[in-house]
Amino acid sequence: MPESNAASFIRFGTFELDVRARELRRRGLKIKLQEQPLQVLLVLLEKPGQIVSREELRQRIWQADTFVEFDQGVYSALRRLRESLDDSAENPRYIETVPRRGYRFIAPIKTATDSVSLNAPQPADETGQGSISIPKVALVSIIRLRWLSAALAGGVIVVGAVLLIAWWHTSPPSPVVDSVVQLTDDGQIKGAGLSSDIRSARLATDGLRIYFNEGPPLSQKIGQVSVTGGPTARVETRLENPTIEGATRDGSELIILAGSGATPPFPLWAMPLPAGEPRPLGSTEADAAGSLPDGRIISATGKDLFIAGHDGSSPRELVSLPGRVASLEPSPDGKRVLLQLDMKGDNANELETFELAVDGTGVKTIRSSSSNECCFHWSWDGNYLLYSVKAANRWDIWALPIHAGVFRKLTKPIRLTTGPLSFSGGAIPSRDGKQIFAVASKQHGELLRYDLKLHQFVPLLSGISATDATFSDDGKWVAYLSYPDHSVWRSRSNGTERMQLTFPPVEASNPFISPDGSRVAYTTDSGTFLIDINGGTAKKIYETSQNPMWSPDGKSILITILSGGINYSMQMIDAGTGRASLVRASEGKGAGIWLDQKTLLAANATQTKLLTLYLDSGKSTNFFTGSPVDWINSPDRKYVYITTGGAEPIIQRIRVRDRMVETIVSLKDFAQLSNYSWTRLRVSPDGSPTLTRALDTQEIYALQVR
């Protein structure tokens, strides 16, 4: 370390590195940084301005790593490090790539043994100038007078302190739910958003009616119901796939994100209530947005927060944040903004919750990320946050005290519901603060296959509540996810010899059985795993990733890596050794499937195209253009099946040989199960596409709060 190897704190630009705690902060806000990128940063900071060779990095960091290719490890670690520093290889501010030689840290740094000393002013020289001589008698009188005053003041302070402590330990009244009333009864999916990664209430109210999203992802509409309950009605609009972000304070407009595709940002609109022509809010696109009480619009694109006029004009940046903004909500008084940030950039459900002033200052953490907490919203008085907490397979609504006053002790989180309904999307308050509105569900599904001869859906595995049915090449074994607990099971294809392979609290996704039926690959929030078809201990083969697809020969597993919002790439994992290697030219591509042993089919970053990727050359060609939601190949790999979004979702089949497209069935009236926000399309051994029908009851409820 420069100057001294004992330096505990290093500052560069707006960043500060706590070496002992191994924490990186930006303007005092902690930034999550994985271990290998952190180690790279530490090595570079040991030699500021000097070139650190790739060989030195290998010896210092990757020498004992036998499961990750070194070149890919360096590339991946530097990419994640630069993302955390908002740096780039093309225009570096901190880390410069020196071609064929290595890397160099180029920014000025400060080091210190404690954080305060980095900015502490130097003490002034003691010159003795300006000293005053005080007579001894006068000095004694002054001391006695000051002693008496101090004694009287001390007594007042002691009494005040006793009263303050007593008051501090008395808990303020806690909110209590007196009753729960069902407001809707239309059987539609509610609360789905534009982005597949964020569970949210997607509700807004003007005081008289509640507005909500309904329908499957990418095909949703806006519905409305009276705050006292009754029949639901559609809010007609020409906007494609509109998603509610909030309502203006006067209730005259909804703030809407609308557009095709699966990932933000999207154009921002204001939609008049109860009816009218929507108007665009500026020309920029946003990931999240909200309306301040004075009508100004606050929005976020990526990590940047903006504020603009009521019509979206003259936007200016408030602050750049340490993670992608997944949702935002101004406080009722308009002085603060509640943010939920995707710190990892992996579009997962684990979001950190922050608060900051509306001018962009005073960023502070409210809640660390947790897969068991979700969807924070303000209470009407701004003193609580309403959110959902998962216990077993049910979500309950809790209230988190956030502002109890300068001298008032904050109480612990307060549980508002205790089942049997599951409130997975948080809750919003009524305009008078006496109620909260939330979407609740009872989860159940029916596994079906579409019989190509009968032209109708029929039960698969007796119609069990399951998703993601995946078969071995000989059709004798099947693996699937039970719903809603997301455990991996296997059985014979006729449903016999059922065995549970994973158990709560593990929540799995994307199970795929190996071609020979001997193993199952699946993912969780913590990585990609392999487990034997007869059970046992699962083996982790990679960190957080998606879509583990077996190669036709069963020797490799293709996975998708997601970082920085929509920054896809793919890795190939050797199923025997666990060694990983980057798929050539896979940057910006993901969710790949195998067409044959040397050819992949993958989506582009915006999920508007499917591309054929040739492993030998790294070249790609267009395979399909449209709005695919999910895709999978047939067991014989002669066809690719896709489901589409939009107002008229369908299942299509594309013949690989000549790209001929055939429509199989419309899904307009099929209640698709939104498992992890998406329905899961699979194909049975006879070529029948399989889906799970939602039998959930998902309705809006009003909770009377005292």
Describe, in plain words, how this protein is organized in 3D.
A hairpin with a 5-residue loop joins strand 30 (428-429) and strand 31 (435-442). The protein contains 4 helices and 56 strands. The radius of gyration is 29 Å and the shape is globular. The strands form 14 sheets. A 5-stranded antiparallel sheet has the order 4-3-2-1-8, with no helix packed on it. It is mostly beta strands. Helix 1 packs across helix 3 (70-84). It is 10% helix and 42% strand. Among the domains are: 9-118, Winged helix-like DNA-binding domain superfamily/Winged helix DNA-binding domain (Arc Repressor Mutant, subunit A, Orthogonal Bundle), CATH 1.10.10.10; 177-443 and 699-705, 6 Propeller (Neuraminidase). The model is unreliable at 1-5, 64-70, 121-143 and 193-199 (pLDDT under 50).
Quick recap:
By secondary structure, the chain is mainly β.
- The CATH H-level superfamily of the domain at 177-443 and 699-705 is TolB, C-terminal domain
| Average pLDDT score | 84
CATH top-level class of the domain at 177-443 and 699-705: Mainly Beta
The amount of helix comes to under 10%
Beta strand %: 35-45%
Radius of gyration: 29 Å
Look at the helices and sheets and give the structural class.
mainly beta
The assembly state of the depicted protein chains is single chain
Termini Cα gap: 59 Å
